[in-house]
Amino acid sequence: MKKxxxxxxxxxxxxxxxxxxxxAGGYYLWFFEAKSYPYLFWIKIIGYAVLGLWYYQSRKERxxxxxxxxxxxxxxILYTLLIDSFxxxxxxxxxxxxx
Length: 99
Hints:
Blueprint: H1 2-32, H2 37-58, H3 60-68, H4 73-98
Helix pairs in contact: 1-2, 1-4
């Protein structure tokens, strides 16, 4: 339970900005359907990279909080990536079902 609370604190910073990249991928999926799968992948990878660099540069002091709680940067990235991948997969499945 403690891990989940810490991850929600971290993911709260990412969700709004990362959802912009998810919506861009949903747009490509809606209009270009099966031809857009490589673009979906690259949109999300670029989004992760940009947001990761932004977070690392602008909120470096928050990483000390997670470090003191026993989390490494690698584990934070992994869990955030897994949570967002699940949300993205569900969103894209809904968009694909609608089209």
